[in-house]
Amino acid sequence: MNPAIDPVDGMTRTQQLLADDPIWLVILKVVVLFAVGVVLTLFMINWERKVVARMQQRPGPNRVGPNGWLQSLADGLKLAFKEDIMPVLADKKVYFIAPVISTIPAFLAFSVIPFGGEVSIFGERTVLQLVDLPVGVLVVLACSSIGVYGIVLGGWASGSPYSLLGALRSAAQVISYEIALGLSVVAVVLYARSLSTADIVAAQGSGWYFYLLIPSFVVFVIAMVGETNRAPFDLPEAESELVGGFHTEYTSLKFALFFLAEYVNMVTVSAMATTLFLGGGRWPWPLSSFNDNGWLMFIAFLVKMLIFLFVFIWLRGTLPRFRYDQFMRLGWKVLVPVSLGWILVIFAIRAYRNSTGSESTAALLITIGIVVLAILAIAFLLPDRRTPDEAVEVASDYPVPPLDLEVPAAPRKRRTPVEQRQPAGALSGKEEE
Amino acid sequence: MSVLAQAASTAGDAGVGEAIVFWILGPVSLASAIAMVLARNAVHSALFLVQTMLSLAVFYLMQQAPFLGFVQIIVYTGAVMMLFLFVLMLVGRDSSDSVVEVLRGQRVAAVLLGLAFALLLVAGVGRAAFAIPSAGLGVAASNGNLPGIGRLVFTDYLLPFELTSALLITAALGAIVLAFAQKKPAAKRGQRATVIARLRGEHARVSPLPGPGVYATANSVAVPALLPDGSIARESLSEIIEGHEVDEHPRPPADAHALTDGRRDAPEGTAVRTTTGGEEDRA
């Protein structure tokens, strides 16, 4: 099915390379992945504070370390030494285990991300990826769906109304946005003909999916912000409504774990978006020759991932938080139907191309163009629906400005008496002179 | 459990790792299944069910069915159990199981049906495990797990698949219709309609209630707000706070002097009236 599959043992080149990894290399990769997660978290917290500060015309953290870049490290150390408070009403075991449940899947999802191409580490040919499962994309989705248990359970176990409300919101949010996320991935999987992340990157050699599959890309990016509880979708921890939301009662290291999980999740979904839509570690056209070197591909991957992370920060600095019903409406009435319709279109195109052969692309495009033209013509020919003018009705004699905010024309009544009283006005004018 | 072991041995490559995973996760999944039934707290019960499902997902992974394993995690633990938790939380964390039997003969029927279902499962799975020879993964899924499932679903099992999806959609539509039928058709009042109603005098007052008067001398919400003439704005007092008899030190009266930085000369008359008004109110 996949052209890259070796007919002998049914494994792709990536899977063969990974299967040959000695145990020390696997352990090295695990340690490096963990370190990448933690270091990127520390970096992201600082970067976010600096960028948001710049957007708000203030300097941001600039005291600890060179240019303030060690601020989040200092904060993390301080957090670890804080008193660990267990609320009286808390469900002790669940309260304890919730931050762990939240953190571990966040790191686990890293294992299937193809960070770069084929490299040689200490003389051993391998790929910059821990494991390449045939269902790699599903691993990331599964990890994100388990990670939310940490938030929901933490909110429930805290025994506080604010936390419980945060947990409820989080549960509803994840159920809604997980569907949109999964549906947006379907189009990519259909085009790449594989669920393996390495295969998806390889399939983007002829073109990145972010412009080939624009609707999927847009839905994925919106849903990934919703999935990671980030502004403008940070309803589970809306500080203006719920104090801290699900982590209101959490202190010390447990709180730090929630914090870590949130940022690692951001890194994970950004890496996933890079893999699925931005061609993984592939360099764009003028620099295509860099694709031969696995380490240079790693750099390209990092740059693309940082672009997504910057968008996260940018969104937070720009957009106000959604109201809850608006958020749910966006998920269920916009993202899910759009994804379903788009998948249908892709199925139709693929079925057409499979039945007639690939040379009929021009005919297909012409057909689509004619259909679109016909729809547009009908849309223009149909008369506009008449909207009745809304009569502004004054509710009471309570003095209010006009509801349509139009300056009322000078009332004619007054002008007529003035004209009639002209001799008197002329007289007064003379008096003033 | 023995079925899984059997299946593993028929596959012919039950490695050491597989055996280790099985003997660790088998007891875990069984224990959490039992704990799910015995747990008092509904959320704990749901969590034990999640644990069982996760163990089963790992079993699927070990049986070289990665797609099934991860779909189990995404669909069952991710979506279905999350909905369960959602409902349990809406019900409330302190609600305990009711011991009263609402439906007559419910328990007897449940036990009988449960036993019948268990019998059916054992018979069906037992036949699948022993009577039918295993074809092995090489035949059923020659070019990978996923294409094999996809081919079967859209060829041999197309009709059952479509029927199942039709059943699910019908159920979902039925749920929507039931949920909306119970809702009253009366339209929710919008922002504009509320404002107009407010102006028509359907509310007690047009403006919102005044906030508490938090001054430099006291940072309690129980401190009343002061009107421009120094008297107390009664509407700023919270009924809930005033309704409670609290044993505490006498609260400091609202003191407008705190705002004038000790200069008692300027708003003399109002300040005096303020303090006396406040004390009257406390008494």
What distance lies between the first and last C-alpha atoms of chain A, to the nearest angstrom? 101 Å
Mean pLDDT of chain A: 81
Count of beta strands of chain B: 0
Given as residue ranges, the uncertain stretches of chain A (5+ residues, pLDDT < 50) are 1-8, 424-433
Order of helices and strands of chain A: HHHHEEHHHHHHHHHHHH
Question: What does the model show?
Answer:
With 433 residues, chain A is mainly alpha-helical. In chain A, helix 2 packs across helix 11. Chain A has a domain of 278 residues. Chain A is 64% helix and 2% strand. Chain A has a two-stranded antiparallel ribbon. Chain B has 283 residues and is an all-alpha fold. Among the domains of chain B are: 115 residues, Four Helix Bundle (Hemerythrin (Met), subunit A); 74 residues, no CATH class. The N and C termini of chain B lie far apart (75 Å). The chains are: A mainly alpha (433), B mainly alpha (283). Chains A and B meet through helix 5 and helix 6 of A and helix 3, helix 4, helix 7 and helix 9 of B.
Question: What's the helix and strand layout?
Answer:
The complex is a heterodimer of chains A (433) and B (283).
Chain A (H helix, E strand, L loop, with lengths): L12 H7 L3 H33 L15 H10 L11 H17 L9 E4 L2 E4 L8 H22 L3 H32 L4 H7 L5 H4 L1 H14 L11 H4 L9 H26 L16 H25 L5 H33 L4 H21 L30 H9 L1 H11 L1
Antiparallel strand pairs in A: 1-2
Helix pairs in contact in A: 2-3, 2-11, 2-12, 4-5, 4-11, 5-6, 5-11, 6-7, 6-9, 6-13, 9-11, 9-13, 11-12
Chain B lengths: L1 H10 L4 H23 L3 H21 L3 H26 L14 H26 L5 H4 L4 H10 L3 H24 L9 H10 L38 H5 L24 H15 L1
Helix pairs in contact in B: 2-3, 3-4
Give the structure's gist in a few sentences:
The complex is a heterodimer of chains A (433) and B (283). Chain A has helices at 13-19, 23-55, 71-80, 92-108, 136-157, 161-192, 197-203, 209-212, 214-227, 239-242, 252-277, 294-318, 324-356, 361-381, 412-420, 422-432, and strands at residues 118-121, 124-127.
